[in-house]
Write a structure and sequence with these properties.
heterodimer; A: 186 residues; mainly alpha; Butyryl-CoA Dehydrogenase, subunit A, domain 3; B: 288 residues; alpha+beta; nine-stranded antiparallel sheet; 10 helices; 38% helix; transmembrane helix (chain B); transmembrane (chain B); membrane (chain B); RNA_pol_sigma_r2 (chain A)
């Protein structure tokens, strides 16, 4: 999909920004809520669009689609909420999949560390480096291409592939349960 | 084994509050409306034609109540679950004051935001609201009193019945609403005068309802809305429930309002089982 093929709203115009909000709010909200839990997502998704609005002058439509650009901003902001993300992962680890995870933020005083997550898939995701986790989740949850991730995160194209490979390898290991060190605690 | 598929299954579909969209949109609107006042904004040019106003919203909102420090602290602070704990503690230590310091902060911050917004102009006052989550209603009112309504995507039809603007059943014209006092004391006096004969045990609730009625769907100018927010902060029967939510009883019915301190908007009102959200309210030149 080339930039010329899609309608690009004019960001300098408040109406154009409104179009971007309408088109992408749903999926950006979903992505942030997946990573941080629904309660903490609201402020971060608001901050994502506020940041985009403030920096709209720096946005270059020839380099990335508005969608890619928003995922980049959202991912950057999610990275500042490490504790929320760990808490959300722990909730995913423990709750049945269909359970409503609202109310996670109520335990604000509870300190959660990555180590408290067991040798599960959620635990393995939690223990990935930030860079590896961002690439993994932009592929798995957002469905971005390697090229889009490179421009969203401002990293070289080749780095996207190597981070993704490293992340997948670690997850495979966690899922296979072949690591005796981890098996002892399982 | 496909790890990516497993990752997607792990995260699943989060349960999303559909009202977050409206709340975030309101925050963006506030940002668009007040570009020069926030830190980090000075680099970008304010929209053309907007008068400069260097009063900080929190300070403007409190100059008349003498509680500048308290409101400045609450300005732009995120509403978090932790706030509920603060509110409970405040109730325990402050005593019978139901609105609490935290709730007062929300109201005064909202007053500061609405006050510093420019008044909108146009030929028609237009309100778009959603009843019970899905029923979309429009109302247009011309300055001469003609009014139209529509439901969903239906055609606008002339409005019939009382109003369209009433305060506890008393009809108000646009000119009367625009002429309301923009100071707390005179505004309350005027509201009492409009309400006229109300029994003593109903009066508190009816006054709270009349004041909140000025906050969203009526064409009250920014200064009047700001005064209404400040008046609400001083009413003894308005209770703060945390997370921007206030409640009071009017004639035996509990009404809850959710107020966003950052945009100065009433996001939602719940009366008994019915909920109402105002998505847009302002002057427009677009004909019904």
């Amino acid at each position: 999909m080339t930039a010329a093929a899609v309608h690009q709203p004019d960001l300098a115009d408040p109406e154009g920004f409104g179009e971007i909000f309408d088109a992408h709010f749903g999926e950006i909200h979903r992505y942030v809520a997946q990573r941080l839990g629904p309660d903490d997502a609201e402020d971060v998704v608001a901050e994502t669009f506020l940041t985009a609005f403030r920096k709209r002058g720096q946005y270059d439509p020839s380099r990335a689609s508005a969608r890619t650009w928003l995922y980049g901003i959202a991912t950057n902001l999610v990275g500042k909420h490490r504790r929320s993300e760990t808490r959300a992962l722990r909730a995913l680890d423990r709750l049945p999949r269909d359970r409503d995870v609202q109310g996670l933020a109520e335990g604000v005083a509870v300190r959660v560390s990555a180590q408290s997550l067991g040798p599960s898939l959620a635990g393995a995701i939690s223990r990935l480096s930030k860079g590896d986790r961002d690439v993994l989740l932009l592929v798995a949850l957002a469905g971005l291409s390697h090229e889009e991730i490179a421009s969203a995160l401002g990293i070289p194209y080749g780095t996207v592939g190597s981070r993704l490979n490293r992340a997948r390898k670690k997850l495979r290991k966690a899922l296979g349960g072949t690591n005796p060190m981890e098996g002892e605690h399982g | 084994m496909d790890e990516l598929k497993k990752v997607r299954e792990l995260y699943g579909e989060p349960s999303l509050d559909p009202e977050v969209r409206a709340r975030v949109a309101a925050r963006l609107d506030a940002e668009r409306a007040a570009p020069a006042r926030r830190r980090g904004w000075r680099r970008s040019a304010p929209p053309a034609g907007r008068p400069r106003d260097d009063r900080a919203p929190g300070r403007a909102g409190t100059a008349r109540t003498g509680r500048a420090v308290r409101a400045a602290r609450s300005w732009w602070a995120p509403i978090t679950a932790g706030a509920a704990i603060v509110v409970m503690a405040a109730v325990a230590f402050v005593g019978p004051r139901l609105v609490t310091d935290e709730g007062e902060g929300v109201l005064l911050a909202a007053a500061g935001v609405v006050e510093t917004r420019p008044a909108t102009k146009g030929a028609y006052w237009h309100v778009k609201r959603v009843l019970n989550g899905s029923d979309v209603r429009h109302l247009w009112v011309a300055r001469d009193g003609r009014a139209w309504t529509s439901q969903g995507a239906g055609r606008p039809v002339p409005f019939t019945g009382k109003g369209p603007f009433t305060m506890d059943g008393h009809e108000l014209t646009i000119a009367q609403i625009e002429a309301l006092p923009d100071e707390v004391g005179p505004l309350l006096a005027k509201v009492h005068a409009i309400l006229g004969d109300v029994s003593e045990d109903e009066r508190e609730g009816v006054v709270a309802d009349a004041i909140t009625g000025l906050l969203w769907s009526k064409p009250a100018p920014p200064d009047v809305r700001a005064a209404a927010y400040r008046a609400l902060a001083g009413l003894s029967n308005v209770r703060y429930l945390g997370k921007g939510t206030f409640s009071y009883d009017v004639r035996g019915v509990r009404r809850e309002l959710v107020i966003d301190r950052r945009s100065g908007q009433v996001l939602r009102a719940t009366t008994g089982q019915a909920t109402e959200a105002v998505l847009e309210a302002g002057w427009t030149d677009v004909k019904p």
